[in-house]
Design goal:
This protein is an alpha+beta fold. The chain has helices at residues 8-18, 31-45, 88-101, 111-114, 131-135, 148-156, 166-174, 191-205, 209-221, 273-284, 291-297, 364-379; strands at residues 49-56, 59-69, 74-75, 82-83, 243-244, 253-254, 270-271, 301-302, 309-311, 316-319, 325-333, 336-342, 348-354. Helix content is 34%, strand content 16%. The longest helix has 16 residues, at 364-379.
Length: 380
């Protein structure tokens, strides 16, 4: 298998495309049964543990398979915390949309308006890129996560406390290659966009993204098990241990303690299935944003030529193989992979998390659990 840095939305698209869900009938398994079977298959494929949630209206069911800690063999707990990776992007975009609603900025402001000189190297020009283009990944900025030295350091996980200032990450991205097109021309996923988005939040408010997310989203929604670490790479309380199968050695490694500054506003949040689905439901149903900003959130740019996938501002709109549409995103960071699907009215939700990720896309475990998540949503 060819090594590939797995982008959050790229994984969602690949797994959704692999799913073969059809319309649910009375004699077909329930959504929870479908997700449970997928969790068990994920463990058979090599995941230490898989957890999942199915929600219809006010009824919630949980599934789990395998273990949350290989050393103690404690069963995987559906209420456990885990690193949500790029699902963080929806939190970051929400803060910027709220700031626009408060008339403290415009999404059509240029990056240079708030971050003079931050994007001014290798042919890239922050005076030509807007905040909106950061959030919908049409800026054309390269992804710093593709830097070889950076990705190797992250995969080896030998320096979990190493500081990664946001501008350093941006500079790594800009150095990848010269522009291949003008800003706004096409969609291309890049973590650099959301590191810059976090820097804009700091420039506008004087606070880091973690503080604004906590005050504007976590506390108002009562997300008691959600946190936004900025320096401490450890996890506390009840959490899934995260693991990786190292590409260059044999066995499996516990990578629960990993560097949170590597992704910051692009992927540092820790949460649970309950909190993540509570947030996504509140977001897509308009509880967090004014109507004008909600419309902006859900205005998508095409990701696939057939129109079945579009990217909004930190969330994905996808038509599943069964014909249903859902809002979605996923997160892939060292040791963890998770995703969620939510209907536009918030009445149907499915989410799951796996506690192994080794920076390779398209593994059998990803395919099988991804297919089960989509099939479970289609069964609702």
């Amino acid at each position: 298998m060819k090594p590939l840095r797995l982008t959050a939305v790229g994984a969602a698209l690949a797994l959704a495309a692999l799913a073969g869900a059809g319309p649910a009938h009375a004699d077909t398994p329930t959504a929870a049964a479908v997700l449970q079977a997928g969790a068990q298959q994920g463990v058979a494929d090599g995941y230490p543990g898989v957890i999942g949630l199915v929600r219809q209206g006010d009824t919630t069911q949980y599934v789990h398979a395998g273990v949350g800690d290989l050393s103690t063999r404690v069963p995987a707990d559906p209420s456990a915390k885990f690193r949500i990776g790029s699902n963080t992007k929806a939190f970051t975009s929400t803060v910027l949309l709220q700031l626009e609603g408060e008339q403290r900025l415009s999404l059509d402001d240029t990056v240079d308006r708030w971050l003079p000189g931050a994007v001014a190297a290798n042919g890239y020009d922050g005076t030509r890129i807007t905040i909106r283009q950061l959030l919908n990944h049409t800026s054309g900025l390269p992804d710093y996560a593709k830097d070889t030295a950076f990705s190797l350091s992250y995969a080896l996980n030998t320096e979990p406390y190493k500081p990664w200032p946001p501008q350093t990450l941006v500079d790594l991205g800009l150095a990848q290659h010269k522009p291949t097109g003008s800003p706004g021309r096409q969609w291309s996923y890049s973590n650099t966009n959301y590191v810059l988005a976090g820097m804009v939040i700091k420039a506008v408010t004087g606070n880091d993204t973690a503080t604004e997310v906590r005050q504007r989203i976590i506390e108002p929604l009562g997300l008691r098990d959600t946190s936004f670490p900025t320096s401490d790479p450890t996890l506390s309380g009840s959490y899934l241990h995260g693991y990786e199968y190292p590409v260059i050695s044999i066995g499996i490694r516990d990578v629960s303690v990993s560097d949170v500054q590597t992704f910051g506003a692009a992927g540092a949040i820790v949460s649970t299935l309950d909190d993540l689905t509570a947030f996504s439901r509140a977001l897509v149903t308009g509880r967090l944003l004014a109507p004008a900003q909600e419309a902006e959130l859900k205005t998508t740019v095409p990701v696939t030529a057939d129109g079945t996938v579009g990217y909004g501002l930190g969330i994905v709109h996808v038509q599943l193989p069964c014909g249903q549409w859902a809002w979605s995103h996923n997160g892939a960071v060292l040791g963890y992979f998770s995703d969620w699907y939510t209907s536009d009215d918030g009445s149907k939700q499915v989410a799951r998390a796996n506690n192994e990720f080794h920076l390779l896309a398209g593994t059998k475990g990803q395919q099988d659990t991804g297919r089960a998540t989509v099939d479970a949503y289609c069964a609702l």
